[in-house]
């Protein structure tokens, strides 16, 4: 219980700090819209093409945005050695990680809430026809990005070439969850419910989240305490 | 002592490998459907087993490092990962050559193939990460954690084949199929070559481990000299 309370305090602190400075949310949002535009220029997609790869396109935007957001997660604590203060505070490594992951999750969800309507307008997609399922898949996929990304942000925070290292390590590990999220989103964007042979993707997405959340929470203390 | 073990293992492995090569080329029967090209399979599946063994050793050594904080386990983890990567590269390359002849393409976005590549990239990231960290203790700790993440990812890779449709040939070993799909002579050859390549992997591991220990000793002496000045 204490762990969750500490995590909530850390998440609130991070969100408050981000809302005051808006240092990653503004750049991430504009970057996401630029990617949406570039895709339109690169493929000039017809409605049929969008039905085929709309889910993939959306998740590529989200995963690029995700790298920017999680990269700042621990890096924002570097000036004035704030990270050392956080680590030596009564909050455990696990609650520190969980709080940061929650804050990244909320920020990413915020970016998605703006990107999804922008995607709908720019590519003429009625994306809200299976809204409940879509929100569920977005939440699961976003949590996997926030969880693995925040953990790797902690892992790479003191490294040279941190900005390069993070996506290089994070993307290959995230592939199973991204693949599942892309397949499910593709189906849900057409307005259909998830077909029975697609539940395997849903199970994979949920399983991925359980495995990597457990691993991250368990190993966070080891990574953070220097 | 270790030199003697390496030499003894080498004395067993070299003739074993040559004998296997001779048998694979001249004595094992052709495949009914594929003809002689299937022989590359003896250098495709066994390296996969050696790579899996390397990754597994790295994971165990990484867990042991986190528990015991002994640099010896970090040295084992990095050596085993490098050997795993080398054998995984052989597995991928021989698979691609076979694919070019049998499927007509070098690369198919088949689940198992793609996942073998992803596993390779994940462990390659492990080696790149190590190079970016100067402090030995920090490097060992961060690498151990990443290695555990990587092995979880590779475990999902293994399971993924069960869940996803694939154009990759299905299991052929009798322990998976219950028998009847592979000539016993072919299957025995496969096991024998797996054993030979495992021995080769063990020799590489011992040699690489010694290199790693010498390197650490040199680094320690260098730090000692700098501290003295």
Which labels suit this protein?
heterodimer, A: 226 residues, mainly alpha, B: 229 residues, Four Helix Bundle (Hemerythrin (Met), subunit A), 7 helices
Please, could you describe this protein's structure?
The complex is a heterodimer of chains A (226) and B (229). Chain A is mostly helical and 226 residues long. Chain A contains 8 helices and no strands. The two termini of chain A are 25 Å apart. The model of chain A has no long low-confidence stretch (mean pLDDT 87). Chain B has one domain: Four Helix Bundle (Hemerythrin (Met), subunit A) (Up-down Bundle). Chain B is mainly α and 229 residues long. Chain B is built from 7 helices and no strands. In chain B, 79% of the residues lie in helices and 0% in strands. The chains are: A mainly alpha (226), B mainly alpha (229). At the A-B interface, helix 6, helix 7 and helix 8 of A face helix 4 and helix 5 of B.
Report Rg of chain B: 20 Å
| Helix-strand sequence of chain A | HHHHHHHH
The shape of chain A is globular
Summed over residues and divided by their number, the pLDDT of chain A gives a mean of 87
Question: Tally the helices of chain A: what do you get?
Answer: 8
Largest sheet of chain B: none
- The general outline of chain B is globular
Question: Could you give the count of β-strands of chain B?
Answer: 0
Put the structure in a nutshell.
By secondary structure, chain A is mostly helical. Helices cover 83% and strands 0% of the residues of chain A.
Helices, strands, pairings?
The complex is a heterodimer of chains A (226) and B (229).
Chain A: H1 2-21, H2 23-43, H3 47-75, H4 82-88, H5 93-123, H6 131-156, H7 162-189, H8 199-224
Helix pairs in contact in A: 1-5, 2-3, 2-5, 3-5, 3-6, 3-7, 5-6, 5-8, 6-7, 6-8, 7-8
Chain B: H1 2-27, H2 45-68, H3 71-102, H4 111-131, H5 136-163, H6 174-177, H7 184-228
């Amino acid at each position: 219980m204490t762990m969750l309370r500490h995590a909530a305090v850390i998440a609130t602190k991070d969100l408050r700090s981000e809302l005051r400075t808006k240092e990653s949310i503004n750049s991430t949002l504009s970057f996401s819209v630029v990617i949406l535009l570039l895709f339109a220029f690169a493929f000039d997609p017809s409605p049929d093409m969008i039905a085929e790869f709309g889910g993939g396109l959306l998740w590529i935007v989200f995963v690029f945005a995700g790298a920017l957001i999680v990269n700042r997660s621990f890096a924002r604590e570097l000036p004035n050695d704030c990270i050392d203060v956080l680590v030596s505070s009564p909050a455990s490594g696990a609650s520190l990680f969980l709080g940061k992951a929650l804050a990244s999750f909320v920020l990413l969800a915020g970016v998605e809430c703006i990107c999804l309507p922008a995607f709908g307008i720019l590519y003429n997609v009625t994306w809200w026809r299976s809204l409940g399922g879509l929100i569920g898949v977005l939440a699961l996929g976003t949590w996997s990005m926030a969880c693995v990304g925040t953990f790797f942000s902690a892992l790479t925070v003191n490294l040279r070439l941190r900005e390069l290292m993070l996506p290089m390590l994070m993307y290959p590990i995230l592939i199973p969850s991204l693949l599942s999220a892309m397949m499910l989103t593709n189906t849900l964007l057409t307005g259909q419910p998830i077909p029975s042979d697609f539940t395997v993707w849903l199970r994979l997405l949920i399983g991925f989240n359980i495995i990597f959340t457990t691993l991250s929470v368990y190993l966070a203390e080891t990574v953070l305490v220097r | 002592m270790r030199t003697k073990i390496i030499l003894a293992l080498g004395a067993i492995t070299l003739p074993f490998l040559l004998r296997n090569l001779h048998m694979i080329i001249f004595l094992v029967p052709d495949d009914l459907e594929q003809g002689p090209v299937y022989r590359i399979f003896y250098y495709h599946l066994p390296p996969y087993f050696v790579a899996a063994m390397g990754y597994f050793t790295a994971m165990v050594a990484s867990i042991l490092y986190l528990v015991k904080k002994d640099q010896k386990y970090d040295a084992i983890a990095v050596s085993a990962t490098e050997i795993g990567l080398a054998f995984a590269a052989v597995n991928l390359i021989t698979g691609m050559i076979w694919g070019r002849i049998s499927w007509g393409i070098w690369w198919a976005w088949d689940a198992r193939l793609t996942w073998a590549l992803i596993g390779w990239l994940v462990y390659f990231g492990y080696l790149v990460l190590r190079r970016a960290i100067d402090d030995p203790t920090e490097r060992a700790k961060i690498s151990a954690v990443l290695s555990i993440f990587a092995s979880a990812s590779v475990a999902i890779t293994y399971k993924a084949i069960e869940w996803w449709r694939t154009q990759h040939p299905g299991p052929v070993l009798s322990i998976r199929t219950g028998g009847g799909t592979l000539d016993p002579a072919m299957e025995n050859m496969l096991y024998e070559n797996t054993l030979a390549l495992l021995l080769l992997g063990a020799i590489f591991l011992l040699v690489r481990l010694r290199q790693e220990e010498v390197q650490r000793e040199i680094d320690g002496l260098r730090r000692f000299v700098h501290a003295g000045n």
